[in-house]
Amino acid sequence: MLNGEKRFNLDAINRASKMCSTTIGDKMKKKEQQGGPEELPADFVTKFDALSLDVLKPLSIAQIKCLKKKLDEETVQTNLKMENLEKDRNENLKKIGNLLHDSVPISDNEDDNKVERTFGDCESRKCYSHVDLVTMVDGFDGERGANVAGGRSFFLKGPLVFLEQALIGLALRILSEKGFVPIYPPFFYEKEVAQLSQFDEELYR
Asked: Name one GO molecular function term (predicted).
């Protein structure tokens, strides 16, 4: 509510500032003297939303410039107040918790959560990692793979070899149906084909 009030004031200040610029421009076109007193009359209307072109016309250019300067200062102050109000609002919004239905149980943890409904088979089963699964089907040999090619290397064997070949076949079939032409490159190639700046040092051996 306060921020809305400040926004209303800021809009009024901006309108008044534009009217000042317009009036100064009109007076300059009419070649009015730019001298004269800068102080505003004591009975001058200082309520920004009440300013009008008719109110500004009797003033000198110097007085209007003085008024515009005050309006610019007021704009800075109003923007600062709006930023502070918005910051306070956001901080207070963070303190507001979620609105809960009356049926939600009150608890310090998830132990007392209420089960509203379930779908399908909700039986809890043990989860296995990929290492567990390949070991269960006897589908790889990590020890001999590491001995041959270094750490984290392995031999695929048994059902996993068939699975890999099946996936390759599936991918080739899908790509062929989409118009791709399968290519099986040679294992060996000429030295000039390699895109290596230091061929002998960077070539995998």
From this structure: ATP binding
Residue type, 44: F
Residues in the chain: 205
* Alpha-carbon span 200 to 202, nearest angstrom: 6
Q: Which two structure tokens, joined as six digits, stand for 43?
A: 């009975």
* Cβ neighbours of 79 (radius 10 Å): 13
By CB atoms closer than 10 A (0-12, 13-18, 19+), residue 14 is: middle
Q: Beta partners for 156?
A: 140
What pLDDT digit, counting tens, does each position of 10-66 carry?
777 778 888 778 877 877 777 777 766 667 766 565 566 677 777 777 777 777 777
Question: Quick count: other Cβ atoms within 10 Å of Cβ 196?
Answer: 11
pTM equals 0.37
Q: Quote the CA–CA distance of 145 and 151 in Å, as a whole number.
A: 8
Picking from 182, 133, 139, the residue whose alpha carbon sits closest to that of residue 160 is: 139
Task: Tell me if residue 205 falls in helix, strand or coil.
Answer: coil
Residue boundaries of the structural domains of the chain: 2-93, 129-180
Angstrom distance (rounded) from CA 40 to CA 70: 11
What is the rounded distance in angstroms from the CA atom of residue 204 to the CA atom of residue 202? 6
Distance CA 20, CA 14 (A): 10
